[in-house]
Amino acid sequence: MSKSQVTGGIICLVLAIFLAIVSFSLPPEKLMFMVGANNNIPLAPIILVVIGVLLVATAGWGKKKEI
Question: What is the residue extent of each domain of the chain?
């Protein structure tokens, strides 16, 4: 299992939770995540969750089990 992938995945998930909490507690004018000309606040936590889950899920791939 790749410890760096697991660590990176957990960090991404923690950041996603933090951004979700901040986005619900602050008004939309205080938090900006611009995509084009639109302020898409929920997009950042969704992207971080997807990356975090992929990193954690693929941490064990490609490694042979030692006996």
Answer: 3-57
Q: What are the φ/ψ torsions at residue 38 (nearest 5 degrees)? A: -105, 145
Tokens 């996603």 map to which residue?
16
The torsion angles phi and psi of 53, rounded to 5 degrees, stand at -65, -40
Per-block average pLDDT, block size 10, for the chain (67 residues)?
A: 88 94 86 82 91 90 67
Alpha-carbon radius of gyration of the chain = 16
Confidence at residue 41, expressed as pLDDT on a 0 to 100 scale: 81
- The two three-digit tokens of residue 65, written as one number: 């089990």
Show Cβ contacts of residue 27 under 8 Å, excluding neighbours closer than 6 positions: none
